[in-house]
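A favour, since you know our structure tokens better than I do. Go ahead and set the record down below.
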Amino acid sequence: MSESPSERPASILVVDDLPANLDLMVRRLERSGFTVFSASEGPKALELLRRQAVDVVLLDIMMPGMTGLDVLRHIRATWSASVLPVIMVTAKTDSEDMVHALSLG
């Protein structure tokens, strides 16, 4: 018997370029019962999203190359905020980046 969507654990994609942060978030989320996928850079995250449906994305803003804001722009070109929620993760205190992220959904 297969699980119905309401019975299966939520799936989360964690995107962070820092291995220690990525590992910490993945382990904590898995211990909490979530199905977790991970990517260390934006292009890999977008490729994973093309292959695997997830319920939510935890996305670091500060990544080299393709930033979290760039990834968010690509995500919003395909999925609305109600279909694929994105939570931006950052240690930045610059309100301009936060406002920009919120404006992208």
Notes: The two ends are 37 Å apart (CA to CA).
